[in-house]
Amino acid sequence: MRVVVQRVSRASVSASDEHFHSIGKGLMILVGVTHNDTTEDVEYLASKIVSLRIFDDEKGVMNLSVKDVDGELMVISQFTLHAKVKKGNRPSYIDAAKHELAVPLYEHLIKRLEDLTGKSVARGVFGAYMDIDMVNAGPVTILIDTHDLK
């Protein structure tokens, strides 16, 4: 499982006239699921994400987590995180998991983040075309791939 975690001052996602979510200060999390991801990957990522010390303390040092600053979370599914670009100019998405595996893991990650923070998590619509607007604060962008740990 691969995530891109971005510290934001605000972010929003719209997928249709009926779907619009926004957050203030917090984390925008893009999630890509691959074929051999499991709930263990989700558990690791959820714990790591809420514990990342990437918010400034009173001395301006990145020493606080999203929980410490009472920040908000937004999770967006993004199969393109597993794009392969080795051959040619058209990316291959063969490493991206099919819906049957990806959707339950995506939903499980959101649930775990809600459990760990005690807050509702804003989200996109899995598999939909979405417009995302965000202000990356810092900028701070962190890539975590659970397969690097195995």
Task: Explain what this protein looks like in three dimensions.
Its EC number is 3.1.1.96, 3.1.1.-. It is found in: Cytoplasm. A motif (Gly-cisPro motif, important for rejection of L-amino acids) lies at residues 138-139. It catalyses: a D-aminoacyl-tRNA + H2O = a tRNA + a D-alpha-amino acid + H(+); glycyl-tRNA(Ala) + H2O = tRNA(Ala) + glycine + H(+). Helix content is 21%, strand content 35%. The protein has 150 residues and is an alpha/beta fold. The chain has one domain: D-tyrosyl-trna(Tyr) Deacylase, Chain: A. Strands 1, 2, 3, 6, 7 and 8 form a six-stranded mixed β-sheet that branches. Helix 2 (99-117) links the parallel strand 6 and strand 7 (122-123). It starts with a strand and ends in a 5-residue tail after the last strand.
Main β-sheet description: 6 strands, mixed
Give the tally of β-strands.
8
Helical segment tally?
2
CATH superfamily: D-tyrosyl-tRNA(Tyr) deacylase
* Low-confidence parts: none
Mean pLDDT across all residues, rounded? 96
Rg, rounded, reads 15 Å
**Terminus-to-terminus distance:** 11 Å
Helix share bin: 10-25%
Q: What is the string of helix and strand elements?
A: EEEHEEEHEE
- Which secondary-structure class do the elements indicate? alpha/beta
Strand content: 25-35%
State the name of the first-level CATH class: Alpha Beta
Any idea what the CATH architecture is?
Answer: 3-Layer(bba) Sandwich
Tell me the overall shape.
globular
CATH topology title:
D-tyrosyl-trna(Tyr) Deacylase, Chain: A
Q: How many domains, in number, for the residues?
A: 1
